[in-house]
Amino acid sequence: MKYYIILILLNCSIFSETKKFPNIPLNESKENTIYKISKKDLYKYQLALEENKFETKENYSEDKESVFLKLNESEYFILEKYNIKNKKIQYAPFKYYDLGYTKRLEEGYQDLDSIQNGYKDEILNEIYLKNIALNFPTKVELHSLGKSRLGRKIYALKILPSSKEEIQGSVLFLGAIHSNELISTEHVYDVIYQILKYPNKFSDRLKNLSIWCVPIMNPDGMNFFWNISSAMGRKNGYLPTGMSEQHLYRGVDLNRNFPFMWNSGQKKASSGNKESVFFRGESSASEPETKAMIALARKERFIFSFSFHSHATAVLFPYTIEETKNPSDEYPKFLGEKILKKLKSFRSDRDYKLRKNLYPVDGTDQDYYYNSFGTNAYIFESSHHNPEYSIVKKVLLGARKSWVLLLDEFYESEKIIIQTFNENKEIIQSNIELPSIEFFEDEKFNSRKIDALFIKLFKEKIKLKILISAREYETKEIELESSSDLRLNKVILKKISEKN
User: Distance between CA atoms of 319 and 366, rounded to whole angstroms?
Assistant: First the structure.
């Protein structure tokens, strides 16, 4: 008997690991339509369910005057049969679809497992991140990167390195630049959860790395999506003159607002129409959310970044903008192919693919980080868009090995690491030129201001001629061979003499 029970359990486990799911957003399913009725009719509706032998369930939310029912077609029949006055809500706020939200808000943060209980709006995000910082004071730091267009804080959780090694790099995981893509936030929380829940698994991986997690870059869009309309959320809180505050298409698409190739002129890459979902803003980096991320990227000069989106089931490597040409070393595409091998799709009709882009774009965060700082920056298009939360956990499982790979890649790849000093052994930020590599998009690189480190990864062993310069210092030419270990090359620059 025991033998057969074990077989059944194994088969169930195998089934759960291989079962795939269609992409059915919670807020777009025919099984989840929102109808508004008056509070006085709620009891009448519940009695009608009992009379017709429907299961009574907590399928509603309420405000001061109304009840919002989440119904399928057969349940809606009850409203019609008993003449219960109702109104179908087109593009209802997401809180009416996610009936567990109020309970999660009331419970707040109990322990780390709380962050795996459901989708998060900007309020839950603040609650969770603040409590994680309180409960893991030696592991993380909570940062406010700035404020959104409407004054909401943009929170980041920095997972600290596990040692005080001389070489320290940074990695970025970002969600909800488009806040209607809720699963993007969940991917960032999966990074937080896995690293803090299983410290032994990640201790060695964090010896020389800080992990910056920004679950919600666009808190205004998140508030709109949850509380005003599920047709909103892609854009931020920008309000053009003369437009209603409740206008469904207010805001700037933050992923068309970054400086690199902003308003490139390419057809359909972005729009100057303020009502377009691709409205790029009045000017390059016009939005405070964009400015906040630029400041963080300039300070940290991330080695890798994942900007999570949904739901194309794809990894996009830079440059993703049309008519741009990648440097001759082509490392991001090479790494992208490795990332792809680590991904498992739980979507029934689509597997993950590696792509340059999905359609014409410009002014994206990914290409800006790559062009300005050499960040190996990827747009990670998740497989599902706002599905039932039980499916989210499968999607996160299928993606997990890909972001873990980034951490391992830092230690295992071929790389050069340079740190620059003056003759007094004080660190100085320097300009780094790599004439051995051909660049086409006016890429210019610097060492990091906080520690004068410059880190670049390669797909294979390479010898490089490198020119290092700084203001008031002589340019120095060196030749280095890449290494797969963390070899620090310390370079001393000499002051330009007054005679010269």
Answer: 8
Same domain as 431, residue 385: no
- The β-bridge partners of 308 are 380
Confidence of residue 135 (pLDDT cuts 50, 70, 90): very high
CA dihedral 58, 62, 67, 72 (to 10 degrees): -40
Flag whether pLDDT at 159 surpasses 80: yes
Residue keyed to tokens 């006085």:
40
Amino acid at position 89, single letter = I
Residue ending a domain, among 412, 440, 459, is: 412
pLDDT at 56: 64
- Min mean pLDDT across 59-63, 197-201, 376-380 is at 59-63
List Cα–Cα distances, 129 to 101, 297, 494, 498, in angstroms: 17, 21, 45, 53
Q: Would 63 be classed as within a structural domain?
A: yes
In the chain, the percentage of residues whose pLDDT exceeds 90 is 89
pTM over 0.90: yes
CA–CA gap between residue 153 and residue 146 (Å, rounded): 6
What pLDDT does 393 receive?
96
Residue 488 belongs to some domain of the structure? yes
Contact 317, 333 (CB under 8 A): yes
The region of weakest confidence among 43-52, 212-221, 330-339 is 43-52
Segment 316-336 shows an average pLDDT of 96
Tens digits of per-residue pLDDT, 265-278?
Answer: 998 999 999 999 99
Q: Reduced to 3 states, what is the DSSP secondary structure of residue 417?
A: strand
Give strand pairing partners of 34.
Answer: 70
Tell me the residue range of the domain where 470 lies.
414-492
CA–CA separation, 97 vs 26, rounded Å? Answer: 7
Q: Are residues 203 and 122 in the same domain?
A: yes
**What is the CATH number for 430?**
2.60.40.1120
Exposed / middle / buried, residue 147 (Cβ in 10 Å: 0-12, 13-18, 19+): middle
Total domains present in the chain:
3
Q: In what order do the strands lie in the sheet with 140-147?
A: 140-147, 153-159, 209-214, 169-174, 304-310, 376-382, 314-316, 353-355
Report the C-alpha gap between 269 and 211 in whole angstroms: 31
CA–CA separation, 188 and 199 (whole Å)? 17
* Pair 127, 225 in one domain: yes
Same domain flag for 290 and 432? no
What ranges in 158-215 are assigned the alpha helix state H?
182-197, 199-202
Upstream peptide bond of 385 is cis (omega within 30 degrees of 0): no
Domain final residue, candidates 387, 412, 437:
412
Same structural domain, 284 and 335: yes
